[in-house]
Design goal:
Elements (H helix, E strand, L loop, with lengths): L2 E6 L3 E7 L5 E8 L6 H12 L8 E6 L2 E3 L2 E3 L3 H4 L7 H9 L3 E5 H11 L8 E6 L3 E7 L2 E2 L30 H5 L1 H7 L9 H9 L3 H25 L3 E5 L8 H9 L9 E4 L6 H13 L2
Parallel strand pairs: 1-4, 4-7, 8-11, 11-12
Antiparallel strand pairs: 1-2, 2-3, 5-6, 8-9, 9-10
The chain binds adenosine-5'-diphosphate, 2-acetamido-2-deoxy-6-O-phosphono-alpha-D-mannopyranose and zinc ion.
Adenosine-5'-diphosphate binds next to helix 7.
């Protein structure tokens, strides 16, 4: 049984063919459409799956947003706007004529990373620092999804009551500060208009404002991790996403977490599956429900 896995993020879409041993046979990426309409997303998804559909028997989607009963709702419309109740499973089933499931991207990634652990851990949390900040919680060996799919949306917890307004409507969310979009939005002067990737590259070259923006993101994430430790008593936090996996970021988060009292510290590691955690987690979940 080969699974066509799809990862829908605020910046990029990925698709992969995954065999029953969870080996990635083929993979490709496209940019998320800039025009945030249902039609634009549907057209880009068609382009993404076309080379793979004939070789797959089922589809597994990991997507940014709240996924409930196969529909996608953006909690932060700035990341993937215009998608109030986008019928994701219905649309992809129509495109591929294959059975299909969908789950939140960070929840999926948490599941893949949990399965990749080589030691006896029952409680872990995955955080993606990417276009937004997403999360997935595994508690006592079970992935928390919640009754409405909201479980693990840790990027929308409070970081700073005087901070910037988040696209979700709250003020001072972790996501508004620590995410790729949050970092870019705070850039001033010669960094104004730069994306997080460019800003981090400048930080590596010793640019003071860029380094401060990177530190602000890492510190915000470390404080979130202390809160997560207090609420879940997790044994490990795994970090993914292009910001989270960038050079030196995890070490900076670790240094900031060491500023917190010992009770609130926990082990940190980079996602073993790197940028494929969402794809593999969705495929694993599909294998569980459609064996
Ligand atoms: P998605 O959110 O679609 O899953 P990514 O995980 O690639 O996609 O996250 C996209 C964000 O990561 C963008 O804000 C981009 O600027 C930022 N980014 C990509 N590469 C890097 C890098 N090397 N260093 C820092 N930020 C990066
Ligand atoms: C946002 C939210 C989450 C998602 C997280 C990371 C939307 C569209 N998405 O908090 O559901 O898990 O971003 O998403 O509201 P990514 O696009 O950065 O991978
Ligand atoms: Zn928010």
């Amino acid at each position: 049984m080969t699974t066509l896995a799809i990862d829908i993020g605020g910046t990029k879409l990925a698709a992969a063919l995954i065999d029953r041993e969870m080996y990635i046979i083929d993979r490709c990426e496209l940019a998320t459409p800039a025009s945030k309409t249902q039609d634009a997303l549907q057209v880009r998804l068609a382009e993404l799956v076309a080379p793979f559909t004939a070789r797959a028997q089922r589809v597994a989607i990991a997507s940014t947003g709240i996924i409930q009963e196969g529909a996608l709702n953006a909690i932060n419309p700035d990341n993937l706007g215009g998608l109030a109740r986008f019928p994701l499973v219905e649309a992809v089933t129509r495109l591929t004529r294959l059975p299909c499931i969908a789950v939140n991207d960070a929840q999926a990634a948490a599941w893949a990373e949990y399965h990749a652990l080589r030691e006896d851990i029952s409680d872990m949390v995955f955080l993606t620092v990417s276009t937004g900040v997403g999360g997935g919680i595994v508690s006592n060996g079970r992935l928390l999804v919640g009754t409405g799919g909201l479980a693990g949306h840790l990027g929308h917890t409070l970081a700073d009551p005087n901070g910037p307004r988040c696209g979700c409507g709250r003020i001072g969310c972790v996501e508004a500060i620590a995410s790729g979009r949050g970092i870019a939005a705070a850039a001033r002067d010669d960094l104004a208009g730069c994306d997080a990737k460019t800003i981090f590259a400048r930080a590596q070259q010793g640019h003071a404002q860029a380094a401060a923006l990177k530190q602000r993101s890492a510190q915000t994430l470390a404080r979130l991790i202390a809160d997560i430790k207090a609420s879940t008593d997790c044994q490990l936090v795994v970090i993914g996403g292009s910001v989270g996996l960038s050079e030196g970021y995890l070490e900076l988060v670790r240094a900031n977490l060491n500023e917190e009292p010992a009770t609130y510290r926990t082990r940190l590691s980079a996602a073993r599956h790197q940028h494929n955690a969402g794809l593999l987690g969705a495929a694993l979940l599909a294998q569980e429900v459609m064996p």
